[in-house]
Amino acid sequence: MQEKQLKNWQKMTLVGRLFHTLGIFILKRRFGQLIALFFRTVASLFDKSHNFKSDTRNIILQTFFTGVEIVIPLFIVATLFGTVVIIEVLSLMGKMGFSDIVGNLMVVVIIRELSPILTAFLIAGRSGSSLTTYIGGMVIDSEVDALATMGINPIRYLVMPSVIGGTIATIVMNIIFSASAIGAGFIVTKGIIFITGNAPNLQLTWDYLSTEIIKALTIPDFVLAIVKPCVFGIIITINACYQALNIKRDIRLVPKATSRSVITSFLYIVFADVVLSLYYFISYLNNLNTII
Amino acid sequence: MLDEALRLEDIYLSTSELSGTLFSRPRAVSYFENIRSSESNADYQLIAGANLSLKLGETICIGGPSGKGKSAILRMIAGLARPLKGHIYYFGEYIPAERLDALEIAKRKVGYVLQNAALISNLRVVDNIALPLRYHKMGTEDEIIKKVNMAMDLMRVRNFANMFPHEISVGMQKRVAIARSWAMDPKLLLMDEPTAGLDNYNRRNLLPLIDNMRTMFKTSIIIVTHDLMMAKELDCNLVFLHKKKLTEPHSFDYWLHSDSEISKDQFRDLQSNQ
Prior knowledge:
The complex is a heterodimer. By secondary structure, chain A is mainly α.
């Protein structure tokens, strides 16, 4: 059998051998294996042996695990960052006399960039790392092997619920981040203005801020507010699971895998953010003719 | 050959297959790496040219010094490690190397009791035993509960049904793991050191259970053990892992009175007692 395989491998045409070498080259790299794990997770959705009840329970548990416990730190971070952005933008714009693009700046800074990135960082730091430790512990205690010998696909039982639950939680957290950055950030800004006694200089009302922001919002902003956290959530959870499943039955590799999972998640998130931001750049280039 | 449970033909296994899980890397990579490394005559081969055949309802014990790859053979049969070369037949059916996978083999009703029980640590004992039954929907909820209770009674872990695995002792975890495999009605059961960590009383209770399984349910059993008296008590054949190969199966008495190198190593105490 093996001899026959080898002969087939030598019999391959030039094009076939080229594709084979390319495929193995990609699959041997970490990035290729990450993408392969993602596709295997998607494929595991269509497994014949499955249990809808346990999958649903795992997904709900994972959503709550990723989402609920991070609400308070996320709310505080969002409020403080929102305050900083509102104060900076208002003081800067007032000085330069561009007060009609306050809404635009708020949308660009908070809704487009700050909110998805910071949400993803917080979730990678908290849920991504704990996911790596959890699955890494299971690998070391050979619980993953035990699951497989019982006929339960570990990718379906462990990875798929974390990916779906983590993605749902990231989307919801992103919306909460944007809302609290603008809403609670406005209240805190008002408080700061009241304390410092600068009220006559800064004419800031909720009506003014909200109408400016709503005027500046476009449909791509809404779409990307869903797409960005979705992509980031998939990146965080797949990366965490990949790092955990790669642990080679050595307890000292768990902390290493955890820190690597968080750091590479940050890297991939920023990289994906740049790629997704190209959309705005392309639409800007398309509209360049009309502007000129 | 319909009365055949398992046949290994000319198996080569490397040590590099034993670390980590098979679920981290894409299957294609390790498959082609295996082909490449089987070409080169490497020194890291753990097992070279092992043959074994097991009839339905037969029990076999694998012995040998520790660290020579007894557990590795069981891992390979359970599909957790892929052989470099060689053919494995399950119930007369050949599974090619590119499809050899723990999930594929579990479909053929092969149960595996791991060396360190490997219970799922966030589930209670009763849920651990019921997990595969519920996941594969093997019967209604009442049937599953009945089956789980029966398995717990057989292994005497009923009193600890609502405890977590970390609250019970290692020997008890082992009994729960055996109960979990038993509840799935395996046709071929692989046991890795089932008596290690069990006291004499529970060990003596485990042996009739294994005996029952092969007579009543026609289960074929492979046991990896250092407890060679087990082979005598179960009246089954013994196979030794010697020089990276599996020897011919022979009875306990044959090994006890033979003049081979293995007998001198493994049976010295027993021979001197006589």
